[in-house]
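Tokens for Ca-activated chloride channel family protein. Go.
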Amino acid sequence: MLMLRPLWLLALLPLALLLWALWRRSRSDASIWNRLVDPHLLPHLLVGETGSPRRWPLILLGVGWLLLVLALAGPVWERLPQPVFATTSQRVILLDLSPSLNAADLKPSRLARARFEILDLLRVSTEGQVALLAFSPEPFVVSPLTGDAKTIADQVPQLTTDLIPVPGPRRTDLALRFAGDLLERAGARNGELILVTDDAGNLAGALEMARALQSAGHRLSVLAVGTAKGAPVPAAGGGFVQDATGAIQIARLDPEPLRELARAGGGRYLEAEIGDGDTRILTAGGALGERIDQTELVADQWREEGPWLLLILLPLAALAFRRGWLVPVVALILVLPPTPGQAVGWSDLWQRPDQQAARDFAAGDTQAAAERFQDPAWQAAARYRSGDFQGALDALSGLQGAETDYNRGNALARLGRLDEAVKAYEQALQQDPNQADARHNLDLVRKTLEQKRPPESQPDPSQQDDPQKQGEGTDQSQKDQEPGEQDSQDGADDQADGQGQGQSSSSETQAKADQNDQASEPDTGTADQQPAPSDHDGSSPDASDFGRDALKPEQTPDAPLDASGTAAASQNDQPSDDQPDRPGVAQSSLTPQEREQQEAMEAQLRRVPDDPAGLLRQRFLLQHLRREGRLP
């Protein structure tokens, strides 16, 4: 015996607890009297009936519970053969690609509206086979009869009037004959043809083919696109198509020939409208000649026996109702208080806060991720990315390890506390000497500190008077000093004070600039970041030049996030020298000559014509050449 819905068997767990409680209660009642009275005297001393009748309601409840759960679980033990039926309808859609379809009396154009209508037809063609033909002077196969309408829908947007390889007037009769041959080769006995056009073309020939199709068991419906007011037909070289007198040709919809054509084919005539109401009318029910045939396939279907168990419950329910047991149950259900609402989102049921935060981190919402992260390493990474360097430093306070010291050094450097950053990088290298990122940032910080140290000798006052003679690596405090400001007696003290103030200002300005730079750039791990404005010359590195300073948490979120790409994204956030595919690293590693070659290659790629309809154009041309006998 099998169960169709085995999870319902979990509802037997409360029943097992109920039986266990009854057994414990009966044992406890018996044990009390057994301890006080001899067993052979106990039947004569007990007054009244035993507790067995009082247990009958609970026993009936247990039996009813068991039967109900088994019925809901769906017990089956017999297979029944079930024949398989399939809809074997064949539908051919004929799209007119004559130049008049470019008229814009229907916005954006008649052809665009026709494509929308065909997409609606394909959307409702969930069963059977469907084919798509395009025609103007000749018919062309876009897709033969297939059960996969999606493959046809992918080609519809590329259908334009310039795909037709030969000019000439539209031949609706040839298109109908070609569609009839296609249905005949497929063995269709009652196919459906839907003509999407704005003109009947050669009406006499089209009517003759429509009657022939109806006599063969097929059906022709017409979906007209256009308006009676009409619109000019755009010309290929610009302007509009003109008639023999030089007047602009107006393409107007004449519904009578198309309506007559639909009557001859035994189908319907509809005009295109916004929405899918017209296409649903065309594809409604059996009016399209659909046939449901029994195939040779046989499917097995289980016969469910659960409803028979419900018949056993009916006497129990009647007994419970007569004894008044159902009334308290119904009353209890009615007076139960409503369940209080809780502010729990759907994602809270399936993802822990760290997993939700990692999702926000991968999406770029680092501030929300910092609030949700409970893991301190990831919280530090999120705060660092959001520009809260002090918060990142606080989150790292309770962590140890080489990666933690490296991340702590990055945060200290961003805050302008370069001396402490040097110590943090050195501690990271002591624990992991092979950490190239820490060594790289350590060198940058040391260079910055060397440039900010005061010179050993007093600079020449004449050099201070002439700003043009100052070196590129001098401290900003020397640039701020005006000529003649220093006195020969207290020049050293004033210079020391100026240097101290300049260094403090440099740290503050540097920290602010780095924060702005960090906030404006979502990826701080690129090696080609432009240095933020600082107090020293731009040729020297500062904290914003740390090419590999993104925080790297030692552990990643749980594996379920890998399926959504969150964990992978966070791993990409860990910069290293082994990532040549990072945009910034690639740009910085290119020489001027290589960059010029890359730009030239991109320019050549932009010159490649983007022609998604090229395959259809070549296919139509090959069909035309084969039809003329110029190709085998």
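The first strand starts at residue 2 and ends at 3.
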